Amino acid sequence: xxxxxxxxxxxxxxxxxxxxxxxxxxxxxxxxxxxxxxxxxxxxxxxxxxxxxxxxxxxxxxxxxxxxxxxxxxxxxxxxxxxxxxxxxxxxxxxxxxxxxxxxxxxxxxxxxxxxxxxxxxxxxxxxxxxxxxxxxxxxxxxxxxxxxxxxxxxxxxxxxxxxxxxxxxxxxxxxxxxxxxxxxxxxxxxxxxxxxxxxxxxxxxxxxxxxxxxxxxxxxxxxxxxxxxxxxxxxxxxxxxxxxxxxxxxxxxxxxxxxxxxxxxxxxxxxxxxxxxxxxxxxxxxxxxxxxxxxxxxxxxxxxxxxxxxx
Length: 312
Hints:
- Helix 2 runs antiparallel to helix 3 and helix 6 packs antiparallel against helix 7.
- The chain is built from 15 helices and no strands.
- It is elongated.
- The chain is mainly alpha-helical.
- It has a domain at 156-312.
């Protein structure tokens, strides 16, 4: 006995063959695919619904409607990733077919938008896909999409630049591409400095928080990589020198004295391979750090501990 869902889908496809595929007929089929897809979603049938949205995107392409085509592709991509998530939640082994199909649909949509000179929309889709992949635990797969997003950034939108580059830095540190993460942080600091130099008002609290995030994350990465001082860039040399000692005027020159002293303690403890001090410092600062910084701190402590064991 034929599945009624399949029968309805096939009937819509057959309608395309009538009247020599004239545009009114394609429009009718597109509307039917959207309507049936929505109906299938309402009944929880994502697998058949995704086929409807893929078919709708093909109709939109025939009609020359780029926005409609990319919207349908994005909807299909979202459903593919939801199907992959469903498998994860049910602990069902997956060959990642849905994941690959979802990424492919997103990429097609992005390419269409770029070809139509809609870079802002393409950028948002790249970030959306990257964030979904991070959420699903596919962080290495997310990195290329944040890289692509960074290539589409509008220099005037500093807020979005911060979001994209912080996400990209997170992916690079997760994949232990520490030099790549440092380059990304340097780029972010440069963009913020350029943006603030063009503003008449003082730096906003959000931008200041981002600069502090960049500074601490960069310091942790430098201490982990432990590149010989002479081989460092001038920017990185200045950062390490800044937190190598506590100047006499620190109480009056630094707005956040506790943070400054913690940064100095971190730098000196790492330099002298002081496992105990690093561990205590991490415990006291844990709640003020984000997940990426806590992971880097643990990586630094582990490295120091390993060095201690080798020396023993």
